Amino acid sequence: MLTNLKLRQKFTALLLVILVVGLSLSGVALSALLTQNAKNEIASRALTLIDTMTSLREYTLIQVYPELSNKLEEKFVPQVVSAYSAREVFEILRKKPEYRDFFYKEAATNPTNLRDKADSFEANILERFRKEKDLKQVSGFRSLPGGEIFYISRPLKISQESCLLCHSTPEAAPKTMIDRFGAVGGFGWHLNEIVAAQIVSLPASKVIEKAHQSSLLIVGLVSAVFIAVMVLVNIFLNRQVIIPLKRITRVAEEVSTGHLDVDFDQISNDEIGNLAKAFKRMKLSLEMAMKRIRRTHGGNTGGTAGN
Length: 307
Known about the structure:
Beta-Lactamase, 4-stranded antiparallel beta sheet, alpha+beta, 4 strands, single chain
């Protein structure tokens, strides 16, 4: 098939094959790399959210709780609970478009509020934090009925003794808190104990979508650059190779039909110029050969006439 194509068409086909093969071979690696980059970027944002919620918890425990704790016997005020404050602030934050797809949970096996109850998957994460003391965070993908999600988690440790005023024993907890949440969950906690796993998650499709957007952008840029290169190569090939070859071919055809008054122009010192130089020498040799033939024939004709 290539034998029927012209030189410029062959070069274009070769460049197209290089483009397709190159993009195909690099596609998988590029996708994996960009997915990892998207994952790292989102994980960084998720960790920032966790740090923010942790700071908010400490603020609630240190500054809000001491001011309102004396009123808990009269009426339970959920705003003094650090977990409640963190959850409520996060829900406000989710109203912003850039955080709409993020979700926050303080998953615990022994929570005060049942909405924080850890499922089996979250309980395994919490158990890992308890067993592996040096483990600071875990992340990955998880399959749920609604689809796959990406999550990142950090351990939540009881670092303030003020937490134990409500979570040591039911007898020590405010009565209004017992009336609201009961005396079953959220007790028996100890200082420096890991009681929950802070988990920030979002749909995995958002990670993949971000990676795909980056992939399309890079592939588009690479393709645009390669197409521009193809155009420039074709222009260069046409001016520096195709046109000179056509000129040499046309002159060679005229010489072959006996028109020796035309000449091969050497317009460059490259291989095309050397080819024109070789044809020029061939033309000179042909002219000399023709002259010798004419002289020989002319001499023979004159001798014959004298006889």
